[in-house]
What we know:
Chain A is of the alpha/beta class and 438 residues long. Helices cover 30% and strands 19% of the residues of chain A. A 9-stranded mixed beta sheet of chain A has the order 7-4-8-9-1-10-17-16-11, sandwiched between helices. Chain B has 2 domains: 386 residues, Peroxisomal Thiolase, Chain A, domain 1; 33 residues, no CATH class. In chain B, strands 7-4-8-9-1-10-16-15-11-12 form a 10-stranded mixed beta sheet, with helices on both faces. Chains A and B meet through helix 3, strand 6, helix 4, helix 5 and strand 7 of A and strand 4, helix 4, helix 5, helix 6 and helix 7 of B.
Amino acid sequence: MGRTRVVITGIGAVSPLGLTAVKTWEGLCTGRCGIGRITAFEPAKFDCQIGGEVEQYKIQQYVPKAFRKMTKLMSRDIELAVIAADEAVRDSGLITKAIDEQKVNINPVRMAINVGAGLISCDPCELAPAVAKSITDGKFDIQKWGRDGLGLVTPLWLLKYLPNMLACHIGIIHDIQGPSNTITCAEVSGHLSIAEAAEVIARGSADIALAGGAEAKINPVLIMRQCLIKRTTSRHNGDPENACRPFDTEASGSVFGDGGGIVILENLETAQKRGAKIYAEYAGVGQSASINHPYEHIEPDGKGITIAIENAMAQAGITPKDIDLIIPHGTGIPQDDVAEAKGIEAAMGNEIKRIPVWPTKSMLSNTGAGSGGLDVVAALCAMRDGLIPAAKNCVKKAAGCNLNIATTAQKTKIRYALCCGYTYGGQTAAVVLRKFES
Amino acid sequence: MASEKTNERVVITGMGIVCPLGHDIETMWQAVLAGKSGVDKTTIFDASTFPTTFSAEVKNYDVTRFTKNPQLHKDGNRGSRFAVGATVQACKQAGINVETNNPADGIDRRRMGIYLGAGEGAANHQAFFGAIAAGWNDQTNQMDWAKWTDVAAFEMRAMHELEQEANMPAAHLAMLTGARGPIRSCLTACAASTQSTGEAAMLIRRGDADIMIAGGAHSMIHPLGQTGFNRLTALSTRNDSPQTASRPFTASRDGFVLGEGSAIVILEGLSSAKKRGVKILAEIIGYGSSSDAFRVTDMHEEGRGAIAAMEAAIADAGISREDVDYVNAHGTSTAENDLIETKAIKAVFKERAKQVPVSSIKSMMGHLIGAAGAAELITCVLAIRDGVVPATINLNDPDPQLDLDYVPNVSRKMSVNIAMKESFGFGGQNNVIIIRKYAEN
């Protein structure tokens, strides 16, 4: 049996730069920054008061009429994924139940879904009326909660916050009945979901897959969490567009935001048979772990990243000479940036001087489980247009960072693009995309 | 992808467990065979006024029994700490060195990975609820975020916050074992560790790793978890008789019993296992995954997704339905699951359905949520090893609609060559693994 080639035939995104992949790419090309003062809640007393917020939308517009009631069960994370999935499916030309029930051209049991998700935090305001009934002498009283508070929580509350509900809602809306998974590897969830979806197709368990990730980080609990573990910047509350500075000597922390990126993967044969446009071929993945204590940061030499990239190149059957673009994780957290730069350098050897490295979080913010999918979508647009936009906020490279940061936009043919990532907790991943040639 | 399909056979070479019925495999297995219940009054937090006051807790667990570096894992959530104990046991059985920079086991750490179905750590509820209470104005129905922030920033602890993230159990296992191969973690509700174990097997079959530390770790016995399940009316409320509350397939079943724990299996490519000369416990021969794509609140009425996953696993195993000797059920003890699971088994096994023993160890262990599938898979391996299938306890008032052989109340001596483990999660996640007694050919 010959090997199965897997190609990408549709993209969708929602980000602080826009509600579509098209707008997101336009924003990236013009160097727009999606980061501003947080408006979802009053952040005045947070160390970091800025984030990447997504513009207003009406979720009902993205689901068929029959499913509008279901939107009440959607947390923001689910909504972001549903919006990006809608665009990706439409872009692919596939006709699912949601697009046109009469003209469906997929076999639902041969379509898989794999959406990376964060650990969704509930909205404190939603529980507040119940909490208010559970106070004794100014303190939370769990016995009162059990007796008086709990009953005020809406019955289906939990279902809004289970991470697998991103994939479940999309699966129901589009009628996707094949293998379904939800990777919860924090900031590498998106990379790994796309990789696993490709593996599911390659092993013959599905012909088509919808994959990527989404997360809404603009939540007081999650922003507080990132502030407490000291991954956020607190120096740029007055000048948000300068805040996230991947690999820059003045970098002082990351900025978090809402977003997601979704792609449609397809068996090459299936894609060609229906004459689908092909963005690129999925070429391989590598994964590993950073083993470090404290584990909220990665090991100083970035070894886990090096291994992931080496394995990804081996799976793709390429060497550093073949790579024309790297989209790194580039969070703007100084020690992590330097460690990542060292990890990439170790994998690329001398080619490190040549290969343009284009970090996106200075514009998109760090959308957690959404970031891998967004970076893959950005890489696919760059490959399609033969264009690497200018990186933002890297004015002077940090000591120890020997990457060739793409500070000016460049027109170039991209044969292979590599998107890599890491997360607190240490998981690392690298995905290789190949320009499609039949 | 350039890598060719290798079709490496996948075997199990180690197992470990920390669960309500014990902190090692044999203790757990003796309790299961004896039909003991691990359910009792909840002690982790004060649940005395909740609709459900009991659960299946892991009791008297001491992570320092398993690790030389308890400091490294002290901040870990309950799931992470359980996972450390289960993994140490499993690695010991499989001859994998842990807690060393210079392993002498001959295993390339880049070829050893981790795939967990793992859940969240509990929120610090005084901080979480306390901040809400401080900030909420009941008159205006508005949050004063300045007040919320003052309490949150003071009460929340950085490491405790970090440890709530679902990828943390996998992080602890990487530090413990030095694994540098594929590391993934998934959370598909109650099907998570069947999924993680199945997908881990696929990574080995493809040739992407030689060894995978697979399984699950989870504890939802915390105020928000129990609030969520109680509001869904998914939990049993048989507060006057906790030990009989998990009663799958009975007419009087009224919901599942929340449990917690970690179950870990060492999966290994057959060639690696042979080269290392390690004992083979069983072979994973089939895996199937599907989604209902029906409703977030309910399973498909006819078990469409469950049937698809079972059939996919049977096809993947290259066996026929007649070959399955034992089905380890999802068997949650909810009205819906037990009915639809029974329908699905009938649809798959047809005229043979009533001859296949189907049992639910959730009747004893409770529902370990993300960790359930792997814990139950381990009992399938032991059923094959010992030639005995566990019972479904508390089965005193059969539901007339449910007429399969659920192995009521008493475990049964019988030879098992092939066993099927099925798991179904909220939202319509279905995952099925088929294992076989290991034979050279």
